[in-house]
Design goal:
Lambda Exonuclease, Chain A
């Protein structure tokens, strides 16, 4: 379990969105375009994700015989320097540790961005409730199944590194240069980022030649 650092009067103002961790692992430039430059564009995939999150984010909590379910629970971690909301947090009736459940469109992915976002939620819950959180779940809209995620040391270390890197870009208002790759074609910000054009900017001399020729 993560032990929170001593209170810092400025710590609250330096918390960054928890969602930035998932954005950063997918693409550091995407994270900065969203959280530094305030850019956003919706496509079919983001619209599907928004609709999938509508119920867990805005729904009311409920109590069942074995579990109490909270939806849209506010989270924060001073150890990671993040804040946000959990789609769903399940609190076992027997007093066991809270269990975060994150909803995602599509299916499980090759990269670990979804797992890192879930792990960050677990760290937030540990700080808030002073209980170790050993596991969580990712619910994928395409498969309609939960995938259990163990909060092991490797995932926690990756989450801490990602949080530090994403926070550094956001707090320093730094936008990394583009790195064009297959992931760009699946990004709703491709038309705003233009990675295929900006990754290798033409030399100044070539640009001047074109301008003179155009005149």
């Amino acid at each position: 379990m993560v032990v929170p650092p001593p209170p810092d009067p400025e710590a609250e103002d330096r918390l960054v969105p928890l969602s930035a961790l998932q954005h950063y692992l997918y693409c550091p430039r995407q994270s900065a375009l969203i959280h530094v430059e305030g850019l956003w564009a919706e496509d079919a995939a983001t619209a599907q994700g928004r609709l999938l999150h509508a119920r867990p984010d805005g729904g009311r909590g409920e109590t069942r015989p074995s579990v109490r379910i909270a939806r849209g629970l506010a989270l924060r971690s001073f150890a990671l320097g993040v804040s946000g909301r959990a789609d769903v947090v399940e609190f076992p009736a027997d007093g066991g540790a809270p269990v975060p459940v994150e909803y995602k469109r599509g299916r499980p992915k090759a990269h670990r961005a979804d797992e890192v976002q879930l792990c960050a939620q677990a760290v937030c819950l540990e700080e808030m409730f002073r209980r170790p959180v050993a596991t969580g779940f990712l619910f994928y809209g395409e498969t309609r199944r939960r995938m259990e995620v163990a909060m092991d040391g490797e995932l926690r270390a990756l989450t801490a590194r990602t949080a530090a890197a994403a926070r550094a870009d956001i707090l320093e208002a730094r936008t990394p240069p583009p790195v064009f790759g297959p992931h760009c074609r699946r990004c709703s910000l491709q038309s705003l980022c233009r990675p295929e054009r900006m990754e290798r900017a033409p030399p100044v001399a070539e640009w001047l030649r074109r301008q003179i020729g155009a005149g």
